[in-house]
Amino acid sequence: MHIQFLGASQEVTGSKYLIRGKAAGLDHCFLIDYGMFQGGREADTKNLAPLPIEPSKLDFVILTHAHIDHSGLLPRLCAQGFKGNIYCTPTTAALLKIMLLDSAHLQEADFERAKRKQLQGRWKGDLPTPLYTTLEAIDCLAQLEKIPFHHRFSPAHGIYIEFFDAGHILGSVITAVDIEQEKGQFHRTVISGDLGMFDRPLVNNPEFIEQADTLVIESTYGDRLHRQLSETEDELVEVIHKTLQHNGNVIIPAFAVGRTQEIIFLLMDLIRRKRLPHLNIWVDSPMATSVTHLTEEHLSELDDSASKVHAWYLKNPNKLDLRFVADVEESKALNRIKGGAIVISASGMCEAGRIVHHLKWNLPHRHNAIVITGFQAMGTLGRRLVDQAKLVHLFGKEVPVKASIHTIGGLSAHADQAGLIRWLKGFKTAPKHIYITHGETNAANLFLKAIQSELGWEHVSIPNMNTTFPL
Ligand SMILES: [Zn+2]
To answer: Residues with Cβ within 5 Å of ion ligand 1?
Structure first.
């Protein structure tokens, strides 16, 4: 058997690994994740690149979690002839229904917008190629096969798979793949997927795995340490207190999946612990609303503290007003609120969506606060705010930045270096081969050095894109 790294090699997006060769004497090939490349000029070209094998020849796909950089090209794979099962947890399947349809919709909308501009003579060059349509995304959903955590299954002769909780987002898994190489002799490959932080609100801690022959591990924050949750809580409490005292609004741009729910639960918990007063919270993003309701339905899968906080909220509904904004009119009405509102809205990097409207209305007033809770990529509006721009351009108009901008660093869905090393310490012996993926070159390099110096493990490498290694 061999593993080929088709994405997330010295970068954080486009996760996809191809495993092929003989299991129990028969030829097999399958994919772990089939994610979209995002950001950067080369992303479009890489997303259009064909697989090294015919999609119809793939036996099955394992999906670690619903994030688009892990799942986003699956509809394209199915449309190109892949007919097998896509194995994932039931919650990942539920999330995909929301996320893949949204992804298809965005691509169709981008294409239509470009076509309109071309007709008006305002588009240079080729039109963007939609990677798939909404119908293709719907067809792909029919190929999902739901497998719960800790349920060992055999998707093909001589291959056994088990999912463990990765503690990254709802439904996310660490995957253990046991391949029968000779009769009764198994080779275990463990794919970390995206690993969450230990001791965060909402999600569980990542589960420890004791043994692997080959390990593929992510390294998004392999080069740094996150702030403690207690510091994050202190910062959030201070900003909210101060802003409400001066009758300002607190605007929180947040990723619709994961981060929004984490913030809602954190705010609820801070009120429960009497660190914050009664709050008026609006969640203004249709996707965030759907995912929050989904989270409430799956509380039993999450950290015990999440169920405790939610139970408290159900018993004390008057302690906060949590409203989910339904339509655009209601969203616009929010802009008339002059103070005392907490608005959580997407997109997380302030590039599109309803958050841009909230920023337009709230940035020019000094009593308001903007709380940035997630990674802001270069070139995004969120990054310009973090970098203390005094003026931004929104909807063709200049908007002065008078509101205070706060970056709350401790809420990350990815483990930091200490978290990754702590997880690695769960292995009883060093895996024979370790491949570091899903991190920019610098993060991956520093993480490699940390593994060598702190654990003394050898045979650690950072694969280049498209390279193949034996299992
Ligand atoms: Zn992820």
So the answer is: 67, 194
